[in-house]
Write the structure tokens for this entry.
Amino acid sequence: MKPIEIVFYVLTGITLLSAITVVTARNPIHSVLALIATFFCLSGHYILMNAQFLAAVNIIVYAGAIMVLFLFTIMFLNLRREDEESKTNLTKMAAVVVGGILMVTMLLVFRAVQLPSVSEGNFDARTGLVEQLGILLYSDYLLPFELASILLLVAMVGAVMLGKREAGDRHF
Amino acid sequence: MDLTIFIVKSIIILAVFGISLLIATYSTYVERKVAAFMQDRIGPDRAGPWGLLQPIADAGKMFFKEDFIPAQASKWLFILGPALAMLTALMSSAVIPFGDTIRFDNYEIPVQGIEINIGVLYIFGVVSLGVYGVMVGGWASNNKFSLLGAIRAASQNISYEVALGLSIIAILMMSGSLSVRAIVEQQAEAGFLGWNVFTQPLGFIIFLTCSFAECNRTPFDLPECETELVGGYHTEYSSMKLGFYLFAEYINMFVSSAFISSLYFGGYHYPFMEQISNALTNSLGSVTGHNVATAIGTVVFFGKIFFFIFFFMWVRWTVPRFRYDQLMNLGWKILIPLSVLNIIVSASGLLFNGMKYASWLIVIVATVLAVMSNSRAPKGQVSPQRS
């Protein structure tokens, strides 16, 4: 086995393990920490695929910003009770149905999809780097990129509006 | 062949690791000495000559104290907290270029842990993870005050990260690269006055302010507060676990000093470097001369780092701390809009004739406004307070 394959399998093992821990952990804080570990491992996979920029941004945005807010919320709510809130049979049924549909969809997709074969001859080592990504985003994908930025701007304005204190509000 | 490079690289990495630990250790000593100097005291002078063994004595004390874990604490997370803080603090020095290249036989090896093309993003990723050490530790203590301290620290860090990131975008536009080494090299092209501190004065001030906040240093040391929070996020910690938290702060200080020096002060470059380097190469030969020139550059870089570490301490013992709402207002309502303005002005300057010094426009306008508002202010004496 090549060293890169060993790295890949070890990394995949850790990824799956931490992803399973996210679901099975009783304590919400442990769950969030396992999710952070999962994001880390995903960044490792990005680096294996030579997408360094994506790996760094994944850590900064997901592990560094979004998960901190998750942790914040959970810590404030102090969800430390070991006993789970009992879920009704209806929610359990719905969860089973949704999960089953997702699994069927993924199975069908994996059956139908043709994975492109990798040729080492025309492999460009610079593909995943920042320059290439920037050129691609500002030439071929300019419109989707700008639309996404407008979407983010709208979300930001909305968040500011929600957080804004109105004139008569209580001053904490 | 590859083995030589590997060995030299490992030596460099180990040296960087050791030096950052050593400098952080002696920063604790220097901090007390600087404080003593500023307050007209002597400072630690009992352990060894001039108190030089004081950090070792402190470490010994820390190790021999009782290592206490609160009964209701989440044990593993309680241990994980300081470990994470220490880990993230030590990780970030890997991408900082400490010098030019070492040349031997046919190899040129950069004096740097790893040279990656996303060095700046790497540092930001590591910095954004630094929050977890504090948050995990504070939560695992199972103490309301620790939790409040942790949340304070985390919200301060994530607030100032935004302005920190925005302030260096102007630099990235000028250098066109995310690699720290490329940014350092790009500053040297235009000589001494091409350093980013001269082309980006406003960005430098914002970056400096934010790095104070990221390191939890005075005037932004609000995560620790005896009067409001009993202690801070590390109230429940004792022994070397507490030592790790405090030590991580000094490592962060070293790393941010190194980062400031390489982003804004030309890294290992110094005025008339070309001439000195050429003279050395001519007199000592291309291998020895080059290596000596590299060594001089590294020494200069460490000089810059020491200056900024001293600056951190200087500010700590001079400026009083902020109140928490003032801190948040400064971060969100002043620093972020200013850094966005800085990006826009610098970008327009670069678009028109590649004018690098456009950022001075904001500084001049801001100074004029400040002077004007000051001259309009009522000149009368401050009226004494009535009791």
Observations:
- Residues 2-335 of chain B form one domain.
- Chain B has 15 helices and two strands.
